[in-house]
Amino acid sequence: MVSRAPQAVSDPLTCEIAVVGGGPVGLTLALALARDGADVVLIDAEIGDAEAGGAGQGARSDARAYFIAHGCWRIWTRLGVGEPLLAHAQAVRSLTADGEAVEGAAFDDLALGGEPLGWMIEHAPLMSVLRAAVGAQTGIRSVAPAVVDAMQAAPGAARLTTDRGEVRAGLVAACDGGRSSLRESAGIAFEGRDYPALALSLFAKLDRPMEGVARQLFLPTGPIAVLPLPGDRANIVWTMRTPAAHALSAMSTGDLAAELRSRAGDFIGGFKLEPRRGVFPLKLRLAGRYHAPRLALVGDSAHLVHPLAGQGLNLGLKDAAALADVVRAATRRGLDPGSETALEGYTRARRADGVAVAAAMDAFARVFTAPSLVRALGGLALGATRWTPGLMDWFVREAGGAAGDAPALMRPIEADAPDVAAS
Ligand SMILES: Cc1cc2nc3c(=O)[nH]c(=O)nc-3n(C[C@H](O)[C@H](O)[C@H](O)COP(=O)(O)OP(=O)(O)OC[C@H]3O[C@@H](n4cnc5c(N)ncnc54)[C@H](O)[C@@H]3O)c2cc1C
Question: Among 19, 112, 135, 366, which has the highest number of CB atoms less than 10 A from its own CB?
Fold first, then answer.
């Protein structure tokens, strides 16, 4: 059932698991849970309508493209959406920093077996494919648009109050993004800092193919990432200090393209800038815990990290896969997936990774968003290629699922136990 009209749900709607938030993480989690046989209600504040082009989150989110590491992409492959997503994705096979190839030990160790490091995909086609899959999946009832106002945890079930009526669930997965009202209402601290910089996300048609190379240019004013997209297009993520970013984002497309050319020299080559753009504040935040009674935080509701190495959604996908493991294991043993014991297991499985990624991104962001004088005084102006191999080694291992115990949905397909392969 997809409820589109803003009328009350049959009151109260009951289910095993309520997924609140139909962003990329919530949609992935709903699919994973339902394919394991759970009875899921998916609630989103906006109409998630694949037929309407998948642009439910408005222009700002739409001006984003994501690097998804191969280990995280495997989650989508296992959920049956890998193929339709690949039709919109560009394989990323190598990285350069300031024009020099980045070669880290992890690249050699990873045994990618010819697989790319990961893929780039734009927000709109990603959402469109995920929404279509959710719409076709039995076991998911979608309620949208509906805003969750409050949650009360009680023995046996949680009660969600929405502007469409009440929903009761044994477990609530908060996939409601960085400003999660569920996290707030559970009193979970979300601490960190705001970076004095913004990311300007732009799209361009290039004169020459990028051939799957993701390129970073480290300027004293902040990095410019040029990330390959299908059809000789690129997503350009230009990070700079806040006042300069505001000034640039107010420019016409022509003036902005001229400014980009003058700053980046011939690094990008010939390009035609598209009018679409987004400006994103950069924040570091981490939830003190990933669960509360009958509540699990998943995706940006649990962590916000600097997008320097494209890790936020990768982390969220790993959260979703880990929560699916926890629910599957509890259900198989006849236990309550919303119990404290089960949810403690989820926090244990995921929070350390969130801390590690947030800390690594923060360390690099401090270097690359520091004023140039501070960088020079600190001996940091050594050349980006001296810094990036460590970062790339780390993130290739981490996001590739090579670190720690990977959730079942991330494991290499050939390593399947028969029951996992069937899921
Ligand atoms: C410039 C930029 C580039 C990035 N690049 C990358 C990258 O290359 N790779 C990467 O891994 N990550 C990247 N990220 C991070 C990535 O964008 C986020 O981590 C990801 O979008 C988080 O998805 P989510 O589903 O957790 O949250 P969101 O996408 O924020 O979704 C939250 C959903 O919850 C709904 N919602 C909110 N409140 C309520 C409520 N009360 N009731 C009902 N519904 C509600 C909203 O409508 C929305 O649909 C980038 C970020 C930026 C800013």
Answer: 19
